[in-house]
């Protein structure tokens, strides 16, 4: 007997003026299935999720839920039909505390609390204002809020993208259990390791159209990448770049010297050097002080102790502009922090040029334009909706934050999870680009929540735990199980039960 789909969408179309977000999308999900929705940045995944959950209306298409035609007109309609989303950006209202946010969405508090604990956050105070809660935790709260109403179909749009390993691991366990208990999950992710470990099937979108549905089985990644990227595949599937060994032997002075750096109770005594010509990775579980480290180096918070030196001279940054003047650029993990959403792609990329203008005088528009255009091409930014950055897909917004600092030619780039939400083809471009920057003699500090990225880009990796540097690995020794153990504060060689992600990280998976 064949099982009939719980959700069946066909012929879905959505346009925004001249931009065709979806031209012919379909998606069919069985009960108890964890179904991946895949596609390059801008393929239309988020648009489809928003249509299925009543946040926007489709121009055309049919949606069947449990075999019955449904016109999902609003989020409330979708919820009544058993469909609950977790969108790509946090949805709690920043100025309200968590409890008020729960009241607004009619979410039962006790089940919410139970899920929050289950998802690895034991000490949440629901009187905390959403604005003061870190991005990764906000994502987990969004998930707990959805789980608390026991949806039949949970739609997760890049749920794990901002999560460090420990929280991602809990989320994956919960998703797996949802499937086991007969509920369905639609799972959007650019991380193949998660798709292989979790999903039963995948629907692939390209340019707004469903181009295939595949069973997840060993070796299917290659096929998915080809379907996702279509004709672009040859151009974008560059070989993973080899991390060259730390360069610039002639210049022994570190570009950035950090000694005994402290920030309140979060960062205790962190010391390391970053030299020109290297990409140094930073790995840490959620809340180990990495946010504070990057914020202090970028001049957005003041350290409570220790020193920062740039090219051998002590510096004190009172403001991010001081760090920028010292040639330090910061690509934050939260793109909404970096971008002026109502402004165009060009203005956002050109921001450091305009900000750097000391005197009144003509801006060299031709030069600005050519630098911006080359950064857009380099990162393959989808500019169909370029007049306002807020209209770009999430991945394309992320690319704009990176393009800005490429165009500005900063000497040191602090990247905080820069490939969050970036598709597999463009990720390769970004890895290549970071290596090229290092080869040109620049220095890059690169925090990543995706352990496999370390091998692809870094010369060495600094592991932070409890606000301290607990280990520094040369890239040859930085395999994923070793990094996981160090991130948990365990000594090298120790065995640890670190759950589903450890299984994933130690199992051989084809890496696109
Ligand atoms: N409000 C809007 N106005 C104009 N264009 C839009 C709007 N919302 C989305 N788009 C466009 O629709 C296309 C699909 O975007 P969507 O966010 O669905 O992509 P996605 O597959 O989720 O990408 P990503 O992986 O980057 O999140 C993009 O070209 C985007 O710029």
Automatic annotation (TrEMBL):
Task: Keyword check for Protein biosynthesis, yes or no.
Answer: no
GO molecular function annotation: ATP binding; ATP hydrolysis activity
Give the UniProt keywords, A-Z: ATP-binding, Cell membrane, Membrane, Nucleotide-binding, Repeat, Sugar transport, Translocase, Transport
**Where is the ABC transporter domain positioned along the sequence?**
7-232, 251-491
A Pfam family hit: ABC_tran
Q: Does the keyword Cell inner membrane apply?
A: no
Which family does the similarity line name? Belongs to the ABC transporter superfamily.
PANTHER family cross-referenced by the UniProt entry: CARBOHYDRATE TRANSPORT ATP-BINDING PROTEIN MG119-RELATED (PTHR43790), D-ALLOSE IMPORT ATP-BINDING PROTEIN ALSA-RELATED (PTHR43790:SF3)
Indicate what this protein is called per its UniProt record: ABC transporter related protein
Provide the species name.
Answer: Mesorhizobium prunaredense
């Amino acid at each position: 007997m064949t099982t009939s789909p719980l959700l069946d969408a066909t012929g879905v179309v959505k346009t925004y003026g001249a931009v065709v977000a979806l031209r012919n999308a379909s998606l069919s999900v069985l009960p108890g299935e964890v179904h991946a929705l895949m596609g390059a940045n801008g393929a239309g995944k988020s648009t489809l999720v928003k249509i299925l959950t009543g946040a926007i209306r489709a121009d055309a298409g049919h949606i069947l839920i449990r075999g019955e035609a449904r016109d999902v007109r609003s989020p409330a309609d979708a919820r009544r039909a058993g469909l609950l989303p977790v969108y790509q950006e946090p949805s709690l209202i920043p100025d309200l505390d968590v409890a008020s946010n729960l009241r607004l969405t009619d979410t039962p508090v006790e089940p919410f609390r139970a899920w929050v604990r289950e998802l690895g956050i034991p000490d949440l105070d629901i009187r905390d204002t959403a604005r003061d809660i870190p991005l990764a935790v906000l994502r987990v709260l969004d998930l707990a809020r959805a789980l608390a109403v026991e949806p039949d179909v949970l739609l997760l749009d890049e749920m794990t993208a901002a999560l460090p390993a420990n929280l991602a691991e809990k989320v994956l366990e919960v998703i797996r259990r949802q499937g086991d208990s007969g509920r369905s999950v639609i799972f959007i992710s650019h991380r193949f390791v998660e798709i292989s470990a979790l999903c039963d099937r995948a629907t692939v979108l390209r340019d707004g159209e469903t181009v295939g549905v595949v069973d997840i089985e060993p070796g299917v990644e290659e096929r998915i990448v080809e379907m996702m990227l279509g004709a672009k595949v040859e151009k974008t599937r560059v070989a993973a770049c080899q991390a060259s060994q730390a360069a610039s032997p002639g210049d022994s002075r570190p570009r950035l010297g950090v000694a005994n750096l402290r920030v309140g109770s979060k960062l205790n005594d962190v010391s390391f050097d970053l030299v020109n010509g290297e990409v140094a990775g930073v790995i840490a579980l959620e809340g180990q002080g990495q946010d504070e480290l990057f914020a202090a180096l970028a001049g957005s918070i003041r350290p409570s102790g220790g020193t920062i030196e740039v090219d051998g001279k002590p510096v004190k940054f009172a403001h991010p502009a001081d760090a920028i003047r010292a040639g330090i650029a910061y690509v934050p993990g939260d793109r909404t922090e970096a971008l002026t959403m109502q402004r165009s792609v060009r203005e956002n990329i050109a921001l450091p040029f305009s900000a750097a203008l000391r005197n009144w005088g003509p801006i060299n528009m031709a030069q600005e334009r050519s630098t911006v255009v080359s950064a857009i091409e380099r990162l393959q930014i989808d500019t169909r909706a370029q007049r306002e950055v807020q209209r770009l897909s999430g991945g394309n917004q992320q690319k704009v934050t990176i393009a800005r600092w490429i165009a500005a030619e900063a000497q040191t780039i602090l990247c905080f999870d820069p490939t969050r939400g970036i598709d597999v083809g463009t990720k390769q471009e970004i890895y290549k680009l970071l290596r090229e920057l290092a080869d040109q003699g620049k220095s890059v500090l690169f925090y990543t929540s995706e352990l496999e990225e370390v091998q692809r880009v870094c010369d060495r990796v600094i592991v932070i735990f409890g606000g301290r540097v607990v280990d520094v690995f040369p890239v040859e020794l930085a395999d994923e199980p070793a990094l996981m153990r160090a991130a948990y504060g365990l000594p090298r060689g120790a065995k640890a039960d670190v759950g589903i992600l450890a299984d994933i990280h130690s199992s051989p998976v084809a890496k696109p």
